[in-house]
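Notes continue from the previous slide.

Worked example: a multi-chain complex. Inputs as given:
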Amino acid sequence: MPEQSNDYRVVVFGAGGVGKSSLVLRFVKGTFRDTYIPTVEDTYRQVISCDKSVCTLQITDTTGSHQFPAMQRLSISKGHAFILVYSITSKQSLEELKPIYQQVLAIKGNVEAIPIMLVGNKSDETQREVETKDGEAQANQWKCAFMETSAKTNHNVTELFQELLNLDKKRNMSLNIDGKRSGKQSRAERLKGKCSVM
Amino acid sequence: MFLTASISGFAFDSIQVEQRVEPAKRAAQILHKKLLSCMQSQPGLEAERRMKKLPLMLLSISMAESLKDFDAESSIRRVLEMCCFMEKMLANMLADFEMKVEKEVLEPLNKLSEDDLPEILKNKKQFAKLTTDWSNDQYSADLYHFATKEDDYANYFIRLLELQAEYHKQSHEFLDRNINELKESHSQKGESWTALSLSKKKVYGEPLLSHLSQSEQEIATPIQECIYMLLRTGMKEEGLFRLAAAASVVKRLKTCLDQGTVDHSEFSIDPHAVAGALKCYLRELPEPLMTSELYNDWFKAAGEKELTEKLQQFRVLLKKLPPENYNNLRYLVQFLSLLSEQQAVNKMTPSNIAIVLGPNLLWPRAEGEAALFDMASASSVQVVMVIEPLIQYSSSLFPEGINTLLASGL
């Protein structure tokens, strides 16, 4: 188990080019770059409220282009929550998540207590290869949450991170540092039909 | 009563029986002669010497002599060894058979034609001349003897067939049993040979040097083959080396490369799989292509701020690489440089290529897993600083020009 520190570590996994960095950058900086730069590994930090206090949300944006098992294991063992990203335009990118999920399962044991979000990114794209129901079915099988997003159009990005934090039952976390959770209800309303928590 | 009846019965039969003696003699004589000519071995000799002169034995000996000219690994030699033994055994069986025929058929026939029957016929003549009671009795006894023995004489021919059947059966069973064994061992040998040649040709995970010396090539098979295919169909593919390919296709291509048989047309349609297989090869090398020994030196050189000086240091390091590593690195980097020329289409700038491929070219020596963790993470960032200028200044760093093999693939 990761040590109980002030950091809440979220690790973003996924094949190359599915938009992990775009999602993280959209969430952290609110921007979308249309450039094409693969990620080696980046870590972003943001302060969030946690149990009537504040903590640092640390987001590790991993590389999708070369999976070194050792690095992957390290990221998983350090991580509290995981975002598994595929592109709805690539069936293969969903396939690529399977070994990663297995790795999480192997290292964390019981994944049901671990917040995991399966994310189908690039929902703005028209050349869809993975239907929403296919992503839902996969999430169902993995007993994890599911959401479709678009970093480009900023669709469901903030919601993705908030939902992930909500999945952690041991902590009461919110992206709003004022500690108010009033927005949660309305957000949940907004998410209806877009997000399904299995 | 008994005697009379038998005498009278005999008297009835005696004429018939008498008429058989002469043909029996002729038959025994001629058939003995003809059967003798069927014999391949010299009659009268003991088994060992008899066998030595059999044509089969001569065949076996010739096989033994011929196989000496083959090396121990030759499958002709292995098969001939077995054949030599088998022909010898067949010769042995033949000799054994002929000895039995000789003893159980030829000799009795001979005795019949040369001794027994002439004796009867002689007595017949005497009987005709003298008609004495003695000779009559003697002749009658002979005829009686012949009559009772006739079945036995007929049995000689049955015995011949039996012996032949026995011999053929024995030979057949022996052949059957050993042919299967021979075939099995031959095919196993074939398989083990194939397996051997496969293991010889196995390239993934093999040290670069041993693969190159085994394949007698200058460029490692996966590097050459993958680049050959990518040059044809992969240069304009967006995110080549970045995007994941179907793992199953990559696996199959890796297997093909291990076996040295790649269907270019099958894999060329999937450039990402080809790029994946190339990345795998580099990553699975026991030592990084740019060597563990120079690991720190590469980073040191990359940290040099002055470009001219940096490139100079790179040149020094490139010279320090073993020639095999240098040749393959040159081949690969020159290809990557060509790939980056298409960056407007494939979006793979030298920097992007360095990010996605660099960690497969240079990685730290594993000193305990904990060390590997942080070093791997740190080195992945650093390695871009090494690989990017390598690709960007490829023509200046590799002054020999484009590798001719690579050029021929263009």
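Summary box: Chain B touches chain A at residues 238-239, 241-247, 279, 283, 347, 351-352, 355-357, 359-360, 369, 372-373, 376-377, 380-381, 384 (CB under 8 Å). Confidence is low (pLDDT under 50) at residues 1-10, 192-199 of chain B.
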